[in-house]
Design goal:
mainly alpha; 4 helices; 64% helix; globular
Length: 124
């Protein structure tokens, strides 16, 4: 009997989502730091791409709700986690963003960090 899970009766196998068309994973003529970021992020991005499309927004919303629902440092940690993920995704997508898209991402990340700082030091 084969050890492949997909061939076992009663198991479900989900086909991987196809990658977008074109050469979209790496930026052409990128600087060495940009290349390093893209290469370090490639595996994680491919893994995220295979997850259900609704999962990442739900997890982000969960961190946001937890950041507001939990007081003190716990809420600040959840918001900082959200800011880190948003910052990483913004950094990876930066070359393809318009100027307005870049400004909006910086504003959102700065707002999440500012709220985290307020939540961390707010005692009342």
């Amino acid at each position: 009997m084969s050890s492949n899970r997909a061939s076992r009766p009663g198991t479900r196998s989900r086909r991987p989502r196809p990658l977008p068309k074109g050469n979209t994973l790496f930026s052409p003529d990128a600087s060495p730091p940009r290349q390093a970021l893209e290469h370090r992020s490639a595996t994680s991005l491919l893994w995220l791409h295979q997850l259900p499309a609704w999962l990442l927004p739900v997890l982000a919303a969960g961190l946001l709700v937890a950041g507001f629902a939990v007081g003190g440092v716990g809420g600040a940690v959840a918001l900082c986690g959200l800011a880190v993920v948003l910052g990483w995704l913004a950094a990876v997508s930066w070359p393809r963003l318009s100027a307005q898209g870049r400004v909006m991402r910086v504003v959102v990340i700065a707002a999440v960090v500012a709220i985290a700082v307020v939540r961390a030091f707010h005692t009342g």
